[in-house]
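Comment thread on ticket #2218

A.B. wrote:
> Attaching the input chain for the structure job we discussed in standup.
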Amino acid sequence: KLSLGLIFAAVFAAATATAQSRVEVQQDARAYARIGKSAQILHETRGKPLTLKEAESAYAKGLFSASNDDVPNFGHLAPPTWIHLSIHNAEAAGPYRIYVAQGWTGRLEAWLRRPDGSVQTWHAGLRELPAKDLRPGVGFGFDTELQTGTSELFIRVNSNASAALDMRVVPMPLTAAMESRAEAWNGSVHGFLLALILTYALLWAALKD
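C.D. wrote:
> Ran it. Output below, let me know if you need it in another format.
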């Protein structure tokens, strides 16, 4: 009886962990939530880049580690890093925007394996095409159609600067509102900083005189 109880406990724990690590696609404002804690992470060995097939094999062997952060952040000395996300869409297939990383990230590569086996690839970053798929105030993100079921997303990040993975999965009808709010917030911050700089400049000029 004790052994049976332990087996049930292990199965329950595994099921719970799977549920926690899977991103459930949302159709309302909950889609704006950051999903970094649902990610699995693997750092490459410098000088030994992994192919997608090798990264998938490493994931299957359990070599990826769970993220503890809503926004995983890798410093400028971090080696190239792989991120995995399981994205589950319980609704009908539809258009989505998957936000990946902040706009100063050097190089991003992504592979989305859909339930039907098809794979969408995506490349972006400052060292690729700086303006490609860069969403003002939010960062780099790509458009896709998420089929019903679970899609597997692998991302490879290679950046000389620090890389902040501000990841979200947002239905296309909700993207405009989120991006306009982010752009307005950035505008307010920049306006405040400019006003502060001008204030200090005037103060310095007054003291100099």
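A.B. wrote:
> Thanks. Noting for the ticket: The chain has a mean pLDDT of 82.
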